[in-house]
């Protein structure tokens, strides 16, 4: 069969596998070069999840973990478009998020940060993009939290994003940051992505997305790998 | 081409309640887990299990393995393919290495058929973990497919001495057929990862 493959991962955007300032990479990065793989049907396909897998509260993190009240913290709207490299919307694709609560604490069992859990905040959510490639979450602005990478290490406020896209080649896990955060320039995970590219991880504050009397708005667009224009022959 | 790719960032240590919630016992449904095929799927039922080892040879307890595979007839549930012939088979699984006492990943699935009649049966793997800034791709081939593996065009591009790292070892156990596939990030047995 012939089909247009996906463009390669842009290593001028993505972090290197070994980045010693982020200490855990030292024992976990492969030492041998990646082997190039010409796309076959295995790489041109991937899991497809539509609206049927998403519950009504999944995109509202201010409600999906609520037990007896509202979660604490600054309520925000996070929205944006998932696009490919040609600027085309990636429709009907799953966007999954997880994050710390307003105090910088994850619900995860191994998070030992001495900050309180919020009984009304879980911190996980998901939605499916619409015909314009748009997603939208209500949530609470996550707090910064300390980690053990180096002396006085703190992660900047961030929301983790996981995207499937149309094939396994477009799979992406990333993090969204907030504008003006003084911790960004001290954070090896943010700094691992090359300058000129990492700035794309910072969301924009938007007064137009902001809902009066309710929630501040942030826009975070995400660009997945696009396809080559010309079909190429898959290995026979 | 007008837009630039969004950089990857690590999945971090706390992905479990967002991405593999049911497996870890959190009150949030997961879109995929370790059970990829249920009893209604046709094909040979198999288990695929293994561990992920760091450069010290220690098993990693905060990795997430995703698998993507064709059904027993070699078809993917995807518009690019002719759709899966097994209507209840998604071909997609996710498993974190933090719940098993030995830090294994554990998939129950069916053995995939040959994709496009050319490639040897294989399972595509996407690997994530704390300490990994961009995800990695590898493939699981099967030790009882010697002939097909010898003709596989992807294995053919891998240096011969390293092909073994992509072949899961079959063991017939009381629970059924188990394929063992360990992933080594570094060292003599370093797994082959693909740039795709
Ligand atoms: Fe985090």
UniProtKB/TrEMBL annotation, chain A:
Give UniProt keywords alphabetically: Dioxygenase, Oxidoreductase
- One Pfam annotation reads PCDO_beta_N
Per the record, the GO terms for biological process are:
3,4-dihydroxybenzoate catabolic process
Q: What is its EC number?
A: 1.13.11.3
Domain of life the protein comes from: Bacteria
Gene3D superfamilies listed in its UniProt record: Aromatic compound dioxygenase
PROSITE patterns linked to this entry: INTRADIOL_DIOXYGENAS
**Keyword Repressor belongs to the record:** no
- Does the entry feature the keyword Oxidoreductase, yes or no? yes
Q: Where is the Intradiol ring-cleavage dioxygenases domain?
A: 78-106
For this UniProt entry, the molecular function terms from Gene Ontology, in alphabetical order, are: ferric iron binding; protocatechuate 3,4-dioxygenase activity
Q: What is the top EC class of this enzyme, as a single word? A: oxidoreductase
PANTHER family with a match to the protein in the record: DIOXYGENASE, PUTATIVE (AFU_ORTHOLOGUE AFUA_2G02910)-RELATED, INTRADIOL RING-CLEAVAGE DIOXYGENASES DOMAIN-CONTAINING PROTEIN
Family according to the record: Belongs to the intradiol ring-cleavage dioxygenase family.
User: What protein is this chain from?
Assistant: Protocatechuate 3,4-dioxygenase subunit beta
Q: Which organism is it from?
A: Propylenella binzhouense
Automatic annotation (TrEMBL), chain B:
Sequence ranges assigned to domain Intradiol ring-cleavage dioxygenases in this UniProt record? 48-76
Enzyme type, top EC level:
oxidoreductase
Q: Which EC number(s) are documented for this chain?
A: 1.13.11.3
Query: Which N-terminal stretch is annotated as signal sequence?
Result: none
Q: Which GO terms describe its molecular function?
A: ferric iron binding; protocatechuate 3,4-dioxygenase activity
One Pfam family for this entry, by name?
A: Dioxygenase_C
The text of the family note is: Belongs to the intradiol ring-cleavage dioxygenase family.
Protein name according to UniProt:
Protocatechuate 3,4-dioxygenase subunit alpha
Q: What is the lineage of its organism?
A: Bacteria, Pseudomonadati, Pseudomonadota, Alphaproteobacteria, Hyphomicrobiales
- What's the encoding gene here? pcaG
């Amino acid at each position: 069969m012939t089909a247009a493959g996906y463009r390669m991962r842009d290593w001028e955007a993505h972090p290197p596998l070994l980045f010693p300032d982020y200490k855990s990479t030292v024992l976990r990065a492969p030492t041998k070069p990646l082997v190039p793989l010409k796309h076959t049907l295995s790489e041109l396909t991937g899991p497809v999840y539509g609206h049927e897998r998403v519950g009504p509260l999944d995109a509202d993190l201010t409600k999906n973990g609520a037990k007896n009240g509202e979660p604490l913290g600054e309520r925000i709207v996070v929205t944006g478009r998932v696009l490919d490299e040609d600027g085309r919307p990636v429709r009907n694709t799953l966007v999954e998020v997880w994050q710390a609560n307003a105090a910088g604490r994850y619900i995860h069992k191994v998070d030992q940060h001495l900050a309180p859990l919020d009984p009304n905040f879980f911190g996980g959510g998901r939605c499916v993009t619409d015909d314009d490639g748009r997603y939208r979450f209500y949530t609470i602005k996550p707090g910064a939290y300390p980690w053990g990478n180096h002396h006085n290490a703190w992660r900047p406020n961030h929301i983790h994003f996981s995207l499937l896209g149309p094939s396994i080649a477009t799979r992406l896990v990333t993090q969204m940051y907030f504008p003006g955060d003084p911790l960004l320039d001290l954070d090896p995970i943010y700094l691992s992505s090359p300058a000129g590219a990492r700035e794309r991880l910072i969301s924009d504050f938007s007064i137009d997305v902001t809902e009066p009397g309710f929630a501040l708005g942030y826009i975070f667009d995400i660009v997945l790998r696009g396809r080559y224009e010309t079909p190429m022959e898959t290995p026979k | 081409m007008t837009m630039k790719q969004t950089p990857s960032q690590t999945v971090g240590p706390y992905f479990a309640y967002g991405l593999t919630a049911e497996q870890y016992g959190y009150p949030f449904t997961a879109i995929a887990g370790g059970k990829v095929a249920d009893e209604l799927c046709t094909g040979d039922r198999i288990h695929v299990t293994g561990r992920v080892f760091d450069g010290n040879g220690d098993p990693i307890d905060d990795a997430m393995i995703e698998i993507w595979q064709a059904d027993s007839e070699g078809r993917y549930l995807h518009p690019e393919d002719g759709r899966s012939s097994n209507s209840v088979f998604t071909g997609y699984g996710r498993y974190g290495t933090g719940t098993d006492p030995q830090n294994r990943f554990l998939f129950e699935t069916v053995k995939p058929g040959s994709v496009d009649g050319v490639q040897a049966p294989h399972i595509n793997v996407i690997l994530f973990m704390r300490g990994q800034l961009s995800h990695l791709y590898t493939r699981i081939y099967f030790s009882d497919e010697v002939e097909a593996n010898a003709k596989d065009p992807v294995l053919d591009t891998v240096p011969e001495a390293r092909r073994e790292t992509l072949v899961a070892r079959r063991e017939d156990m009381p629970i059924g057929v188990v394929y063992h596939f360990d992933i080594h990030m570094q060292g003599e047995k370093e797994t082959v990862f693909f740039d795709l």
